[in-house]
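Why should sequence recovery work at all? Because a backbone constrains its sequence more than one might expect. Tight turns favour small or flexible residues, buried strands favour hydrophobic ones, and helices have their own preferences. The token representation captures these environments compactly. In the example below, the structure is given first.
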């Protein structure tokens, strides 16, 4: 792995203004206080490392995002290990079955808890629940400060640390923690930086780390539905030539739908009158849950695939969407980010205990080796799944339907697929080990 080399400007600053190894404001600065950034801060709770999270939005705005996510068993275990799951669990819905099918083809692959030997297969959590509980948990962590709304403007990488310039903000720093930050600092000297600032990561771009990827021809329409009949804790993923259609059970007997379609079609669905939209939805949804009604607004997200060529640089690590973004099919994106956060926290903890420099290339390379290949497999899986199922080519249709039947008949294959989709295969962080 190549380190991110400081530019000429950075080198000049490094000579004049480099922080000495003992004068750091914090050990770790996490840029981006979304779910992944907040999870990393929480996972570092027992490390004695001083952590600051720099978030561009006020807390109330960051929490208020209307998204909901399928949460893998590996992610719920990570939150159990951190100690925040007890607060999250009563506010999320579980699913005990996943039904996978291809358009109108009658054969359905049914994944059940006995395939994994667990009571449930996963959960669906709303963004506001996860982030609110993580923020409340962080208030009890003495070593974490939360800087918001604040934005990183420039970063200067020195041999022993990173100098981070923050944009002044009229709202200043939210003093939500025991260690209150009285006013927004203009400059922070930190031992290392973590980019958790989403798919357009400014930190990644400033460090010169390149990405590979593409925009899909599809967008995802997301909405909340109140069905007449109870969802029975079943999650559905049905593939149509236009794209996957997912139904996820959420709290209050409601369901979340993720309806993928080519951009123009998805835009038209967004603009339809509610009655017309519900008619079309009923056709796609089927009659198993009776009459449907819409709760709140519909949202549209363009689907894209992106993978950073490096996860680490000189005193820098990327986590979550800053490192990778994938098609929403299979609900992988956030779960991969949660595992990144747990893995990076583990690598930093071990290095810190051993007296190593946590920002050194040798330490950070362990994180990159661990996570990049595993994420690549999951990203590849979502891409292949979407491409194989989103078409009408005769041979491909026959092949994929045969594949689904094989999954239905051969339990070991079904279990293998389920373990992969539930984030239980490959090397897991200690926090994700069964309790
Ligand atoms: C339709 C759809 C459905 C999905 N469903 C699922 C699912 O079921 N399961 C799943 O696992 N994943 C799902 N995903 C993927 C998931 O939404 C993302 O992977 C996840 O939200 C990424 O979280 P993050 O914390 O890495 O990034 P973000 O949520 O983008 O958070 C980044 C944070 O950084 C802050 N920030 C940005 N720039 C700066 C800056 N310069 N300075 C300071 N702060 C900054 C932002 O304000 C934000 O709070 C879905 C995605 C879509 C589009």
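From this structural description, the recovered sequence reads:
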């Amino acid at each position: 792995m190549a380190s991110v080399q400081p530019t000429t400007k950075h080198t000049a600053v490094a000579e004049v203004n480099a922080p000495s190894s003992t004068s750091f404001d914090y050990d770790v600065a996490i840029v981006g206080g979304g779910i992944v950034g907040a999870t990393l801060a929480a996972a570092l709770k027992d490390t004695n490392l001083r952590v600051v999270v720099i978030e561009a939005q006020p807390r109330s705005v960051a929490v208020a995002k209307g998204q909901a996510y399928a949460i893998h068993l590996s992610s719920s275990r990570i939150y159990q290990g951190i100690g925040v799951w007890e607060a999250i669990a009563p506010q999320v819905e579980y699913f005990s079955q996943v039904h996978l099918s291809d358009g109108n083809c009658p054969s359905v692959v049914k994944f059940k808890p006995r395939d994994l030997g667990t009571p449930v297969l996963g959960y669906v959590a709303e963004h506001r629940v996860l982030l609110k509980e993580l923020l409340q948990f962080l208030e009890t962590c003495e070593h974490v400060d939360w800087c918001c709304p604040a934005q990183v403007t420039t970063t200067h990488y020195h041999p022993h640390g990173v100098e981070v310039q923050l944009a002044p903000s009229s709202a200043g720093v939210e003093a939500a923690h025991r260690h209150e930050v009285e006013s927004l600092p203009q400059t922070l000297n930190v031992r290392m930086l973590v980019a958790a600032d989403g798919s357009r990561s400014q930190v990644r771009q400033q460090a010169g780390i390149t990405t590979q990827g593409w925009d899909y021809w599809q967008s995802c329409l997301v909405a909340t539905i109140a069905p007449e009949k109870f969802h029975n804790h079943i999650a559905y993923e049905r593939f149509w030539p236009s794209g996957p259609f997912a139904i996820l059970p959420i709290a209050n007997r409601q369901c979340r739908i993720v309806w993928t379609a080519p951009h123009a079609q998805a835009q038209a669905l967004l603009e339809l009158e509610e009655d017309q939209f519900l008619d079309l939805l009923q056709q796609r949804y089927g009659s198993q849950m009776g009459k449907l009604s819409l709760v709140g607004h519909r949202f549209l997200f363009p689907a894209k695939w992106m993978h950073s060529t490096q996860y680490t640089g000189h005193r820098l690590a990327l986590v979550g969407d800053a490192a990778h973004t994938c098609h929403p099919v299979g609900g992988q994106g956030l779960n991969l980010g949660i595992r990144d956060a747990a893995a990076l926290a583990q690598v930093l903890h071990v290095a810190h205990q051993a007296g190593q420099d946590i920002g050194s290339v040798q330490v950070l390379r362990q994180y990159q080796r661990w996570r990049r290949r595993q994420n690549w497999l999951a990203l590849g899986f979502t891409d292949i799944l979407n491409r194989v199922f989103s078409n009408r080519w005769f041979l491909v249709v026959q092949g994929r339907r045969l594949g689904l039947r094989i999954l239905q008949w051969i339990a070991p294959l079904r279990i293998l697929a389920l373990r992969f989709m539930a984030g239980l295969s490959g090397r897991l962080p200690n926090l994700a080990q069964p309790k």
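A few observations help interpret the result. Confidence is low (pLDDT under 50) at residues 1-21, 170-182.
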